[in-house]
Amino acid sequence: MRFRKPARPADPTESLGVVETRSGELLLLDFGCSELWSGEASPVVEEGRFDPELTASLNRGGDHEVVGPDAERAAGHLDLASVHGRYAFDVPGDAGVVRERLAAVCAEHGLQAELRPIDRMPHRERVRRLLDRAPAGTEVPFHGMWGVVVRGVPAGRALPVRGVRMDPEGPDAGRWRSVWVEVAEGDVASSEAIGYVLVDRARLMFADPDALSSWNAGEPKEGLADLVFWGRDGDAVAAHLGAERFDEAGHTVHGWRDRSLDEVRRLGAALREHLAASSAKVATDYRPHDDDHRILTAMRESPSESATADVAGGRVCGFFTSWGDGAFPVYRDLGVDGGLLRVRVELGAPEIVARARRMEELWFGSLAKLAIASPGVVRGDGVRWLERYAPRNEQDSGWCVYAGTETQEELDDPGSATLVPLRDLIKGQPDLEAVFATPAPAAFERADDGSWQPIPLPEEP
């Protein structure tokens, strides 16, 4: 995760940059997914822009509108993630789920409304129509993602983007607690929830929707791109492939910068081939030299891991969430007179912190450690016996798990066992998590009533 631990400042508020809009509308979204934003064009994706499977998935959805004498009231009762205002966007098939829910709502409340298919609505037009209905702010969906947009910010003026971090003495030191656009000065008297912004690439951007329509994502300027990788085996992979070493805001990555697209394709193929032939594990990132690359490069070099870029006569401000991916709540902070002071995204909300703790435990903590699973467990027969011995290395949990459906031949063959992360085992049997917390040595058997009962531990194999 990308975050740095700064010294405790006298004023905890930090500057991330500025944002300037021409439209008086402010959009917050994950700009790592900006190549999905259609702007004023139809959201139907042309063949060849993405891989065939993704293109088919994006084009499978359709847009629909709730119409009829009671359309507004009926739409307000639907309570479906795909429905915003009177519209259901990007719904696959014939929108049967929405139709059924609408019929039930109309029957329950005595309303007259129906669902009508409409032409796919450009994403910029979605912003206009949704804000016409809810100018204070609303979520706006685009191809499975969604951002948050508000109307009524000052146009043609540089608005500061500021933030505060978590407690510098706490476990989340360095991560953002909240980040906001300062629309006006004043003391916050109240706050109104707008919705959630969905993040899939660990980054966010405040932007004018019009500027975003001019954002160049995925089309490298001058035909150049970077390919970088990092992770547990980064040094070894770099040595094997002759990759360079780079520092990005205190984080080490390896790879190649400023290479032609043909060379990046060749290097990417060599990297994939090496990873497939070895047990090496790294994360990779392809970075075409587009507008994303321009602002991301500045973000990685900035102490605040944020940056401002000029786009289409306005300015946008991008920053890393410091919490990775997720859904983050967005608020309007209001003054005593009800005027808008801030548009704020709460990154360190309690539910976000709890989710981050859980993800760290699943992917980097005790539940990421490996168990020896028998063929029966791997087949999906479920765990019935567990044995825990002293772990032999950092990745070893010490657990051996059995289903009881294994043949004697399988039990006698050490090669039939599979190493499985504990997190995968608790997916089908959540009650295993409490058992996995038992220190070694230990052994358990599932009783007829479903409980886990301690049993004597056999000698270590």
Describe the structure.
This protein is of the alpha+beta class. The strands form five sheets. A six-stranded antiparallel sheet has the order 1-9-10-20-19-11, with no helix packed on it. The chain has a six-stranded antiparallel sheet with strand order 7-8-2-12-18-17. A six-stranded mixed sheet has the order 24-21-23-22-25-26. The protein has helices at residues 52-59, 71-76, 96-109, 123-133, 209-213, 234-241, 261-277, 291-301, 350-363, 375-378, 408-412, 422-428, 432-436; strands spanning 14-19, 25-29, 61-67, 83-84, 87-92, 114-118, 138-142, 145-151, 159-165, 176-182, 190-199, 203-207, 224-230, 244-248, 251-260, 283-288, 306-311, 314-320, 326-334, 340-346, 370-373, 385-388, 396-402, 418-421, 442-446, 452-454. β19 (326-334) and β20 form a beta hairpin. The longest helix is centred in the middle third of the chain and has 17 residues, at 261-277. The protein is globular and about 75 Å long.
The first-to-last residue Cα distance is 38 Å
Query: How much of the polypeptide forms β-strand, as a percent range?
Result: 25-35%
Task: Estimate percent helicity.
Answer: 10-25%
Overall body shape: globular
Sequence of strands across the biggest β-sheet = 1-9-10-20-19-11
> What average pLDDT do the residues reach?
91
As a whole number of angstroms, the C-alpha radius of gyration is 26 Å
Counted up, domains total 4
Number of helices: 13
Largest sheet: 6 strands, antiparallel
The structure class reads: alpha+beta
DSSP summary, beta strand count: 26
List low-confidence stretches.
1-7
Protein name: DUF2185 domain-containing protein
Pfam family, one: Imm33
